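Hello Y.,

Per our agreement to keep a running log of every chain we model this quarter, I'm adding this entry. I've kept the format consistent with earlier entries: sequence first, then predicted structure.
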Amino acid sequence: MLTRFSLLIVALLALGFFFSLPRAMADELPKDTNKIVSLTPEQAGKLARKPGKVLFLNGLTTLDADTAKALLEFKGSRLWLGGLTTLDVATAKALSEFKGIGLHLNGLTTLDAKAAKTLAGNKAYQLFLNGLTTLDAATAKEHAGFKGAVLELNGLTTLDADTAKAIGEFTGQFLSLDRLTTLDADIAKALAEFQCKHLSLRGLTTLDADTAKAILGFKGNLTLNGLTTPDTETAKALAKSKAWDGRLPNLTTLDADTAKALSESKAWDGDLSAVTTFDSPDSVEIAKALATCGPLPSFCTSAHERVGEQSAWCVGGRGVAPTGDVRWAWMNDRR
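Predicted structure for the entry above:
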């Protein structure tokens, strides 16, 4: 009798284990958290309580408010939710309580004004919304209400005047609009009125003189790293500006007048790392103009000896071979 009873107990235990196995396996989450495609509030809480500085959940495509609240137990610095393409108000409200350094929501492609207003109340230091490709004035105004230091909207490729004025009310430290590829004078005037401390426009590759003068009226610090071939008048505007941060790392060509204009800037760092040659009719004049702008901050000038008619010239770590006359004009004027 005892033996039969024992066998029955063993059978029941085995059966219970068999049926609980799938649940146990389902509760196990991938070690690579970016592979997690769905979360219950319980799973989210368990995951959030694990120690770590960054929590990557870029595989999640949906997130409800209760699960978002559970994720707030995460005490690290950055929360990545790049797989979310939409966000309702309730979930936005829950995420707004995240107190880390950065909230990364670069997958969002649309966000209405109400959700934007709710999200703008978040307590993170940095807010990344680089998936938004369009923005109307009403929604831009809500984004501008973000009280953190850094706001990135690098998905925007165009901006109208009303939207520019609205987003310009952002009063944080840094606003990035690095995907804007074109800018007219009217939009530039609106951008010049921005309230933030630093405005980044790295996506601009060209800038005419009138637009340059307008945007350079900005009262903060301005990054224009994408410019490749500024003309002389634009270079003059840059040289006179107190806003420009002095960097043109993508400058590819340079004529004598533009070189002279840039050399008069106290801000320009002299970086010519993207320029591959000065072999042009006015190369000597370019070298003479550049020689007036002080010591070379990023140029390798260790090869002083002349090699035939071509001098070895290392600019920003890249080999450049201008004519020998250009080399000697540069070095002699700097001695």
